[in-house]
Amino acid sequence: MRMTMMTVLVAAGLAGCGTLRAQGPEIPGYTAGQRTVASAPISLAELEELQKSLLFTEDDVRALRMSREVLEPNVEELVGVWYGFVGANPHLLAHFRDQTTGEPDGEYLARVRARFEQWVLDTADAEYDQDWLNYQFEIGRRHHAPGKNTTDGADSTAQVEFRHLVALTIPVTTTIRPFLERGDHTEAEVDAMHAAWVKSVLMQTILWSYPYIHEGDF
Amino acid sequence: MRMTMMTVLVAAGLAGCGTLRAQGPEIPGYTAGQRTVASAPISLAELEELQKSLLFTEDDVRALRMSREVLEPNVEELVGVWYGFVGANPHLLAHFRDQTTGEPDGEYLARVRARFEQWVLDTADAEYDQDWLNYQFEIGRRHHAPGKNTTDGADSTAQVEFRHLVALTIPVTTTIRPFLERGDHTEAEVDAMHAAWVKSVLMQTILWSYPYIHEGDF
């Protein structure tokens, strides 16, 4: 399915334009780079400052790019591991349950999953430009009320709690390491890719936290 | 000075009682375990849930304990590295500048530093009991307005921005690794101690964020 989508995008001349994939109908609700995404409330200069606080450098950008090659063929399996983690933790799975039936909402899970797979590639490719920055805050709104349910027409919990949103930095980056080891990279390169993933995911969960924060405190 | 303080505490029968050090006059503003510290707004059961989201287990508790032995003799040097990082970043050093003179406030820096050194040991020793949990929120208030300045009678910035507070998880845990390597531990043990430190510091910066978060969103 992924290959089919890429084929369609390449045929349409839409692949490889900029850092964020042009939207295809195969990724529901994926709007990165589109004009409908609101402008970020912090500047690119403030993003650079945040990167300094995170010790995030050009070396990390290179390590993330390196990770794409080894992650892309495994992205469905990788996101499957993350879904397994969520499914094994009732306090996390709750955020995919339909409020009326009490059951996990299969369509909601599937729509989020398609975006989650694309997010892996976007994290590896990120150029930290204005489109990328804007979309981080859109992702934040989609974890917070009311954006969480409206994006996918779901009827689940109003929002993911702030504390769990940021905490998920750890399972995401811990379980990614065996996937980073699947290529022909040296141990030092795997270490560098892993460290870059930790920094990038924490950077993103910090940005996603914006709607949870009192005005002026971010 | 640290040894002197320990000697005094041992002589007074105050050392080793519980997970948090009884306060000595040598650590200004250190109030862990005292009745003046307000009760945490989340329960111990909610803390356990957060630990699950962080993949934080008994193995991490053991790895943190293991780290104490190698960190304690180096704690002044370690915190010196962190202070060097803050001093090299104007957007972080700003939070130690006196608003009137514009200069770094030496007394404020010294008071915070003494607590920061104790924090290293408390992180290694933590038993995640009610006193520990309560004190995390006290530390949060001391990064947020008005607690930041009042604790030390300082006249500096009103608060540390949320985004930088959580981001500091990375420099703290990246620069600690060479210190963890100073003992006789295997590489696997050093990896385990380092991973546990990353989880614990992220857990703490999440808890410290509480006063920044909209009511009901934490």
Describe the structure.
2 copies of one chain form a homodimer. Chain A has one domain (2-212): Globins (Globin-like, Orthogonal Bundle), CATH 1.10.490. The termini of chain A are far apart. In chain A, helix 4 (75-87) runs antiparallel to helix 10. With 218 residues, chain A is mainly α. The first copy, chain A, has helices at 2-11, 44-53, 58-71, 75-87, 90-93, 106-125, 130-141, 147-150, 162-167, 169-180, 187-208. The first copy, chain A, is globular, with a radius of gyration of 17 Å. Chains A and B meet through helix 2, helix 9, helix 10 and helix 11 of A and helix 2, helix 9, helix 10 and helix 11 of B.
Defining key terms:
homodimer; 218 residues; Globin-like; 11 helices; globular
CATH topology of chain A: Globin-like
Average pLDDT level of chain A: 91
Helix content of chain A: 55-70%
Identify the CATH architecture of chain A: Orthogonal Bundle
Estimate the strand proportion of chain A: under 5%
Kindly name the structural category of chain A: mainly alpha
Concise synopsis of the structure shown:
The structure is a homodimer of 218-residue chains. By secondary structure, chain A is mainly alpha-helical. The first copy, chain A, has eleven helices and no strands.
